[in-house]
Amino acid sequence: MGLLRAAFAGEAGSFAEDAALAYFERPLTVAVAGFREVFEAVAGRVAEAGVVPIENVSHGTVREVYDLLLEHALLIAGEVEVSVRLCLAALPGQTIDDIERVYSHVQALAQAERFLRQRPWTLLASTTTAGAGKDISDRSERGAAVVLSPRAASLHGLAILAEDIHTERRNRTRFLILAGQVPPAWARPGSGAMRTTLALSVRNEPGTLVQALGILSGHGMNVSKLESRPSRERDWEYVFWVDLDGDLCRPEGASVLSDLRAAAHTVRLMGCYPRFAGEPTES
């Protein structure tokens, strides 16, 4: 097959590319425009895998990714964490006093909020951090800076004006590794702790969510995360995303899923995969 192709959103030097390089051994990274395009690249077999952010330690989940997971028939095959170091960078020769506006992804702007509030800069949202860096470099845009990683700043020929501007010192992001519905040969074996991700909806009646969670508890399943997103099918109803400690893809998980489906409106198994262990990769 040759080098495994891993799609990510943004430009070279993005945190998602860092995640792909950390998870795979010598992948061919494929830059695409945005998160939707990552899903489309995997679904259309332009890439064997996709890498998307799902959660930052201090600023929570990337909600667009949850919605795209429901929209596409893809499998979560793994996860990896990346330490997020942020710097402020601009064209060479610019000083911090020359800056009038700052570009970056909304999550990165939020993660550097304390630093950015110190000056009356105009903050402008971009699709990705590294993409914002490439844009101001390509446009030779003076008076502008970008919040991104030191690696991305270097790759796009920008000079660093301020280092480590993120508020949370242990800032890190968890990324999901996406594949087709058949578990891929490249997925890491589950020799350690496993995680199962489910998407479920319940009848809009008192106690139905508690009943579903009680079934999981009764089977000894620990819910490590519970997130809700609006349903695309019914107004004012919700899809609940559940991360469980354990592997429901094994044969013994069938009874758990059967009991859960009897109580819930819909249950979709999104993937069973090894939980990330160890220290996050430095960006």
Keywords:
283 residues; D-Maltodextrin-Binding Protein, domain 2; Alpha-Beta Plaits; seven-stranded mixed beta sheet; five-stranded mixed beta sheet; 9 helices; globular
How many alpha or pi helices? 9
Give start-end ranges of low-pLDDT stretches.
none
Helix content: 25-40%
What is the level 1 CATH name of the largest domain?
Alpha Beta
Query: What's the number of domains?
Result: 3
- CATH superfamily descriptor of the largest domain: Periplasmic binding protein-like II
Shape: globular
- CATH topology grouping of the largest domain: D-Maltodextrin-Binding Protein, domain 2
Helix and strand succession?
Answer: EHEHEEHEEEHHEHEHEEEHEEHEE
Average pLDDT for all residues: 93
Work out the oligomeric state of the chains in this entry: single chain
Please compute the radius of gyration using only Cα atoms: 20 Å
Measured between the Cα atoms of the first and last residue, the distance is 28 Å
The largest sheet is: 7 strands, mixed
Short description:
The protein is of the alpha/beta class and 283 residues long. The chain is built from 9 helices and 16 strands. The chain is 26% helix and 33% strand.
